[in-house]
Amino acid sequence: MKNLPKKIPVFPLSNFIIFPRTTVPLNIFEPRYVDMINDSMKSNKFIGMVQPKNKNNVNSLVPELYKIGCMGKITSFKDTNNGHFLIELKGLIRFQILREIKSEKKYRECEVDFEKFNDDLNEKSEDLKFSDLELIFKDLKNLFEKRGFIINWNALEKQSLDETINALAMASPFTLEEKQILLEAKNLDTRKSKIADILTTYTYDQYNNNTLQ
Fold this sequence. Notes:
The protein contains six helices and six strands. By secondary structure, it is of the alpha+beta class. The protein has two domains: 7-121, LON domain-like (Archaeosine Trna-guanine Transglycosylase, Chain: A, domain 4), CATH 2.30.130.40; 130-212, no CATH class. Helix 2 (134-146) packs across helix 6, helix 4 (161-171) crosses helix 6 (188-212) and helix 5 runs antiparallel to helix 6 (188-212). The chain starts with 6 loop residues before the first strand and ends with a helix.
């Protein structure tokens, strides 16, 4: 993709991440983010999704942000007539925040750099097979079910492997910090390994809890 922007609006959303080549629905209702969507629709339709660092200050107007996020493009837009917007955002490429830009706007804007993540724009599939996921799928299913998460596993198996891994990472009941680790993972193979590592701690905790009861 040519002409990536040097400045983008950022949407700090706790415990929520998007990855390149994945699409997520968002319900926009806060006035500052309604403004952000309006402005974005008038320009390049780009928005940067990034997590606030401290989950205890997510209600703050200016929570500290992680340095790595993912830029998405609005691919679907619907005005609900009550001041809300329903949008779909497609992840394009991860970015690193260089600095925050001061402005009179209600929402936040940052100067960003994409250089470390140019491979996100590469359409070439990584050399992984769906069978590579089978070892972690059992633990994932157990964790999702215990937390009351409903996943259409059959539909996942029909997607490409990168879409599957990224969808599971986005939908997982992992912590804010764990999701950030997955977002920052260099490539798909690393992300798959990180999911397995995180799951090990969950299954270990469940085992310990079961033995103590």
